[in-house]
Amino acid sequence: MKDESGAMRLDENLSEISLITKDAFEPTLPLSVVMHIDYKKAPMIIQRFGDVKKLVEQTLDPMVSAFFKNVGQKMTLIELLQNRAAIQEESLAEMKEKFAAYSLELQEVLIGTPRASAGDRTIEDILVQLRSRQVAREQIETYKEQEKAATQERTLNEAKATAAAQLALTQSAIQVQVHQNEGAAALARAQKDAETVKVTAAAAGERARLEGQGEADKVLAIGTANAQATKLSVDAYGGPEYRLAEQNFAKFAEALTRIQQPIVPQFLMSGSGAPAEGSSAGLIPTAMLSSMFGQMMPEALERLKDQAPSANGRVK
User: Is pTM beyond 0.85 here?
Assistant: First the structure.
């Protein structure tokens, strides 16, 4: 690492590693490698390389630089910044085997924060963007938590309001049930009333029909009886002519009663000369009676003749 070296100053000529990332950034990577040389293997290392400082500068430094340059080309600058711990573990595992080939024991690989050259603010801008992005993520999480809190608060308020209005809700539910039951009862009553009206109307119609039929039968019976009585009465008088004459005579008598005119004339009619004074009033009733009896007598005599006993003593 730049401006840092061990006690024996074997790495005083080493510098930071220049990388080219996958997205074409060129940061420098501070790097420290901690290794141990076993005193038993030190003579062999000195014999092989002549000097440990040359081993570090000519062998270990190029090997470490090449490894991290390869890692840098596979990652973007942001990935290089975010995956520093993973890169550190991976480099320690792989370079241990390479250091062991040189009889060296690798103990630790320490990676610093990549930085740009003097006057270059590219990495700083990337870091600012990363910070802004992280702030945005945190804000999103904050908003989600606030939304959850608001939802929980709304749920809590609804629960409180529901609890406060539970009595009213219960009464409303009961009232709804009562109204439903009352409606069902009213419907049932209406249906029963309709059936009652229907049956009553049918019964009234049947009754009216029967009563009308009975009245018609009654009128028919009365008419038939009257007709039979009239027929019997006419037959008792000897026929319709006698019955008609009887009715005319009764009406005539009633008329005479009203006019107070005697049926028998007070003066006799003579065959010669003019009628006496006051006799003309009696001529009209007398003439009418003569006419009626004159019409009835021939038929009456004929009926008497028919009813006279025959030679053998029987009536025809």
Answer: no
